[in-house]
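job 3f2a | input accepted
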Amino acid sequence: MDSRRLINVQTRLFLMIVFFTWILTAIFFALQYSRERDYKIASLDSHLQMQNAKILECIDDGKRITPQLVAAIDPGDSLRVTVIDLKGNVLYDSNGDVKVNHADRQEVKEAIATGHGFTKRRVSSTNNREYFYSATRGHGIVVRTALPYNHSLSEMLRANSVNSYIIVAIALIMSIIAWFAAHSISRSVKNLRNFANAAEFGDLSKYDSKSFPDDELGDISSHIVNLYKLQQATAEERDRNLRQAIYEQKEKNRIKHQLTNNINHEIKTPVHVIQACLETIENSGSQLDEAMKQELIDKAYANSNRLCSLIADLSVITRISDAPDQIQSAPVDVTSIVRQVADDMSVYPPEQQMRIHIEVPDGVTINGNHALVESIFRNLMVNAFNYSAGRDVTVKLVEETSDYYRFIFNDNGMGVAPEHLPRLFERFYRVDKGRSRSMGGTGLGLSIVKNAVLFHHGHIEVRNRKLGGLEFEFTLHK
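job 3f2a | predicted structure (478 res):
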């Protein structure tokens, strides 16, 4: 059990009030005691300064300082008198012959500098007794008087305790009042705590807003009831959102790390090929025949094109992912784009040509980005032409609602193994890495397709057709 729970609210509140009350009492008592003590010390110093003045007056009159003269000035037998020159040498001391230089004594230094000084308590090097010293500067000399710290002097310097008793009495009265105040407050707190416990465990049968008075406590209770109802409704959503946020952050970190590694790997390959071809020509150009030189130049050129394509594709993905708000949208004629992409595919060599079937009616228009919409159909076409090994491609509008168009793009090729389907839209993912690179692909085509669809607030899925080939189903928001 938590040790704090062993002390109830009433006791903790009472102890807190009492603690601060007695702290303030102690501070006030200390200040009062110090002020009274300083006042009495100042009075004692003033008294000794008057004695010093009398002795200086006698010296100025040419009188010799003797024990009898000191006794005449101060009838008591405890006054000690010392006469010191401005260099600290002792000219006279009522306790006997003193040879010690007094220039470093605090009261003497202050008297020489300002005219008078005092030291509240210091042990004398002559007789090992504690004294209160007071010094006054005259014409070329300093007169210092001192009283020993005996019982009478200590009593005189002790602060008056009457005020202290009054302060302590007030503190005790405040402590008693604090006890009753804490008791009164704790009763309301206990009732509120019981209600809060019942609300926490869902047992509200014994409590309702009418069971509390129409005051601050009733208002607090009503707020707790409302908070309890909201808690149950929002707890699950909050946890779900938190899990989703954590997953998304981890996924972003994973994708960034994977993307960095893939970019590094993909860029290195064409760069190394280009560098190797150029180094061979540079170092062995005179020894190579024209056919070999041309082959190296063609290989370097092909890899430079591949590098340019890679950079262009990365630029597209970066724009979609990092700055979608900077991509302009306007009315886009989807039908025209599909037909234009189909016409452009005629540049492929005969052995890679496929029959393209377009089932998209005229007038299919969305509000989007022309370049990104074109990248969707162009990359799907290129992917089918390069890797499907099929003979037919179909682009079909299968559904139109007030919000979106639904398209299907398929081929009748060989499809892919089921384990590859979930990863086809990943950046740089290739089903057949060797064949993909030989065809000049960057590994970013389908990733661009997915990001472009998402930019247009759509959704895309891929699956193997029962009759063979791949089928992409996606939507584009109007």
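job 3f2a | Residues 216-284 form the longest helix (69 residues).
job 3f2a | closed
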